[in-house]
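> call design_seq(struct)
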């Protein structure tokens, strides 16, 4: 993890690095601008902050419901294409107008790696898994991403796992085991492995950002990553289009996924971080699964089982404990100096 903020003015702090990130598609670790001026952590949240917080908690909790509907009429890879292409068409012009694309040309290799690990592969795996798993269960399994992030932080030497955080990992893993053991069948094992792949991708993506794309404009990276992913999936999408126009529910789900849950969501998340700071902003990670379960049960009539109830409580508790900051953080190893371009 990146060291905490350093104070500048009495009422503000400067956040540098990539502490302002949280997960893409409803789970954990997504990020925004590399350098932001935000309200002091101890300050009361404004009405605007609460509004943005509630909006983001809902927007990043509904993708699982929409994906479940969309894969009923589209191939999982075709869905990735339409979601990324539509969102990129909205975000790329905005990023270009702000001059946030040209600086990325010198970092095209890590940009491609980020796009593949954070977007292209996880979104395909998630879409495919939801052809078998319920949207609520998928959302809860993705909630384990902070656990994976904590393990990666410890493995790379940037974080210390004290007794509380270690207990959080164990509790979270028990929660995942409860979800898998109480609610799944043998035929769902492959889908669970796909969700695990999604969680790993979501957790690894921010490490690429922190090491190779630090200081780069957040909107430019996100818009470029979406555009590159759309281009990669274009040939496959063209050969796997449905024989006839999808149902209104499917087309509407794709449109909302792209416009609201991707393009608009990132713009609102950047605004949320600027308003309340990255630490508070990441709390929506723990709200998204509750939204996913609620919508899945109410709108898709998915079963609310004992496994979901027990697993959700344990995964949520474990994630909060496992991502709790140490009072005396271990200094992260120095980052390699990038070669001159």
């Amino acid at each position: 993890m990146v060291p905490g903020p350093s104070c500048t003015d009495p009422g503000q702090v400067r956040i540098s690095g990539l502490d302002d990130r949280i997960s893409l598609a409803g789970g954990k670790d997504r990020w925004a601008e590399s350098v932001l001026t935000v309200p002091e952590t101890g300050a009361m949240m404004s009405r605007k902050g609460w509004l943005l917080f509630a909006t983001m908690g809902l927007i990043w909790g509904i993708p699982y419901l929409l994906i479940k509907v969309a894969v009923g009429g589209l191939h999982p890879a075709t869905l990735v294409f339409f979601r990324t292409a539509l969102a990129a068409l909205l975000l790329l012009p905005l990023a270009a107008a702000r001059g946030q694309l040209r600086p990325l040309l010198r970092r095209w290799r890590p940009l491609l790696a980020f796009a593949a690990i954070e977007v292209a592969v996880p979104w395909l795996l998630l879409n495919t898994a939801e052809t078998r798993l319920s949207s609520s269960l998928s959302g809860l399994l993705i909630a384990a991403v902070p656990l994976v992030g904590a393990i990666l932080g410890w493995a790379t030497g940037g974080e210390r796992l004290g007794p509380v955080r270690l207990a959080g990992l164990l509790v979270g893993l028990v929660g995942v085991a409860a979800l898998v053991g109480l609610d799944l069948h043998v035929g769902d094992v492959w889908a669970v492995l796909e969700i695990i792949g999604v969680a790993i991708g979501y957790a690894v993506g921010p490490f690429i950002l922190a090491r190779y794309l630090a200081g780069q404009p957040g909107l430019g990276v996100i818009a470029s990553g979406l555009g590159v992913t759309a281009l990669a999936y274009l040939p496959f999408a063209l050969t796997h289009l449905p024989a006839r126009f999808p149902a209104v529910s499917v087309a509407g789900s794709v449109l909302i996924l792209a416009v609201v849950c991707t393009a608009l969501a990132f713009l609102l998340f950047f605004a949320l971080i600027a308003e309340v700071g990255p630490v508070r902003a990441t709390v929506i990670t723990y709200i998204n699964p509750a939204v996913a379960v609620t919508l899945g049960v109410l709108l898709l009539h998915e079963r609310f089982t004992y496994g979901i109830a027990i697993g959700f409580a344990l995964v949520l508790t474990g994630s909060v404990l496992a991502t709790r900051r140490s009072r005396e953080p271990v200094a992260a190893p120095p980052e390699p100096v990038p070669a001159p371009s």
